[in-house]
Amino acid sequence: MTAAALALTEVGKIYRTASGPVQALDGIDFRIAEGEFLSILGPSGCGKSTLLSLASGLEFPTSGTVEQAGRRIDRPVTDIGIVFQTDVLLDWRRVLDNVMIQPQIRGLDLKAYEQKARDLLALVGLAGFEDKYPYELSGGMRQRVSICRALIHNPPLLLMDEPFGALDALTREQMVMELHQLWLRERKSVMFVTHDIQEAILLAQRVLVMTPRPGRIAEIVEVDLPFPRRPETMESRRFVEIVAHVRHLFERHGVLKKY
Ligand SMILES: Nc1ncnc2c1ncn2[C@@H]1O[C@H](COP(=O)(O)OP(=O)(O)OP(=O)(O)O)[C@@H](O)[C@H]1O
Q1: pTM
Q2: Could you tell me the strand order of the sheet in which 71-72 lies?
Q3: To test the ligand 1 pocket, which listed residue (8, 11, 14, 46) has its Cβ within 8 A of the most ligand atoms?
Q4: Which of 7, 10, 12 is nearest to 68 (CA)?
């Protein structure tokens, strides 16, 4: 049996602060299989970003273990790609050079990776934009560049922290479908953090629903919808049922009010 791309076992996280300890996570136990897309859905402050920090080795659990591909994480992990809510592109570098930062930092064969960077940019519809500067791009285009930068070194695991949160609703829907197409092609393991119930379900094979702080797992919901998913998938009876189930979980945990 191959090891999970990411495995958290009985993870707890307590931050020590000037005003006392803050329990951010409690009893978190889940795995992301190789090639699986898992959404993490939860209210503000439930510990979603903390989970990402643990998965990338920027923070360590107070209790329990975090493993990537069977290896316990005890230092910042390099074998991952991360996409944040803001695109964090370097304004003084052209699009291609922004994507090439990763191979440059990692000391990889720049010639080979330049072709890969161009291929990835073409894949997300940015062929012809290689020499533009970030200020010449729309928000959606900038986030596409960020996704290329996260994928260029071919990491097995992609961590995404509300990557479309700063985009307008229409661009966001477009980006969700593009990410889905990309995932179907590349089949990376993905941990996708979001506040958005529909987005979480549309993209994922399973949705991990969190409780308010201290973040615990309310339920891991199987999304048994066929692939490829499309905008119309959101109108299907099964999709609507899963949304209702997740809303019900949030009502039960006091995140959403019942009307
Ligand atoms: N470095 C830190 N030091 C102290 N407390 C922290 C730290 N990081 C997070 N916390 C606390 O831990 C809890 C979880 O925070 P976290 O940022 O992981 O939540 P989140 O679900 O990502 O929130 P949001 O959706 O609003 O970004 C919060 O109460 C937060 O104040």
Answers
A1: 0.92
A2: 20-32, 6-17, 63-68, 71-72
A3: 46
A4: 7
Number of residues written out for the chain: 259
Question: For the chain, what is the mean pLDDT?
Answer: 93
pLDDT-derived band at 170 (thresholds 50, 70, 90) equals confident
Please report how the helices 139-151 and 110-123 are oriented relative to each other, as an axis angle in degrees rounded to 10. 140
Q: Is residue 129 part of a domain?
A: no
Ligand 1 centroid distance, CA of 23 (Å): 10
- Return the residue whose CA atom lies nearest to atom 31 of ligand 1: 45
User: Is there a contact between 212 and 254 (Cβ–Cβ < 8 Å)?
Assistant: yes
Site residues for ligand 1, CB cut-off 6 Å: 15, 17, 22, 24, 42, 44-50, 213
- 242 burial level (CB within 10 Å; 0-12, 13-18, 19+): buried
Residue 201 counted as domain residue: yes
What CATH code is carried by the domain that includes residue 44?
3.40.50.300
- Using a 10 angstrom Cβ sphere, with 0-12 exposed, 13-18 middle and 19 or more buried, the burial of residue 57 is middle
Residue nearest to atom 28 of ligand 1 (CA): 45
| Interface predicted TM-score (ipTM) | 0.96
Is residue 106, in this structure, part of any structural domain at all? Answer: no
- What average pLDDT score do residues 221-245 get? 97
Tokens at residue 143, please?
């986030």
